[in-house]
Amino acid sequence: MCEVVCNSTAMIFDRDEFVQRNMGDLDLSRKVAALFITSAPEYAGSIRLALADRDTIALCQSAHKLKGASANLSLPSLSDSARIIESFTETGELEKATEMLTVLEHRLAQAIERLESELMSPQGRECP
Amino acid sequence: MNVLIADDDAASRLMLQSLLTAWGYNVTAACDGDEAWRILCEPEPPQLVILDWMMPGLEGPEIVQRLRVKQFESPCYAIIITSRNAKDSAAQALNAGADDFIGKPFDATELRARVAVGHRINCLQRALSEHIDDLKQSLSRVKQLEGIIPICSYCKKIRDDHDSWNQLEQYISDHSEARFSHGICPHCAEEQMEIIKTLKHRSA
Fold first, then answer.
1. H helices of chain A, where?
2. Tell me, what's the pLDDT at B75?
């Protein structure tokens, strides 16, 4: 069984790791981040909808998708939240998953803010 | 080398596609498992495929299972990429027929090295396949010479598959790698010398 402990100290965005994953290509990093900023709220919406419908299959798939996508974007705190929701779904603890959704939405907002400020903004663009 | 990427997350797909293109591969991208399988069934399928585990339609392990059942002309190297937590995920992917397994988030340097391994294995398999084809062709020629060959008891000509009668040496040349040099054996030399002597004597 997966560990379902929320890592509250997890980093929001590891910019260096993300840019390194893109082989130092800042332009590619920004394009990937822009796509994530567009699609991630849809993933969170799918999680919310699946929870409302108590559709565990859809819930597991949506949480898993956001977990993987945010991990590739070096957003560990968001990925961790999605992992916990996936784990609660697998064990049938949907009330706990619902509670965790609030945390996930907060962390998603933080992640998008950090992506925009550290990569997409003029200040972010100046970073090497 | 042609590479197929299948991932339903647009950001991950763009990242993989851009990196692999930068590393010199020809990349095609699919956004779900069904599209990936359709591309793999085209006349000239990609030689390497990177599949996300969980996708709409066919999932990564289902695609590799199908890949191993279907007899493709040239083998396809399959890598499964996933953020699954289960400890036995790698074993499950490999048992399904995958050649390699990478976790999300992936490390770009490691991904590049693993794809290069796939490229190397694919080249070796293709070379081996070509050698086997050459051997099969040679073997088929040898088998033709091993069968029952109709030969004329008097002139020693051989009848071919088209009912034509050929000189023995012509038939062997056509059905094997053997080639003939032309000389004369001592017995025939002696006979021919006798004939020449007789002809000379008559003409004189």
1. 15-21, 26-53, 56-72, 76-90, 94-115, 122-126
2. 85
* Token representation of residue B126: 């293709």
Residues 26-55 of B with CB under 8 A from A: 52, 54
Please work out, in degrees rounded to the nearest 5, the angle formed at the alpha carbon of residue B65 by the alpha carbons of B64 and B67. Answer: 60
Nearest to B8 among A2, A38, A65 (CB): A65
* Closest to A61 measured CA to CA, from A50, A70, A71, A53: A50
* Contact: B11, A28; criterion CB under 8 Å: no
Q: Quick check: ipTM above 0.90?
A: no
Domains of chain B: 2-132 (3.40.50.2300), 148-203 (no CATH)
Domains of chain A: 26-126 (1.20.120)
Q: pLDDT at position A3, please?
A: 44
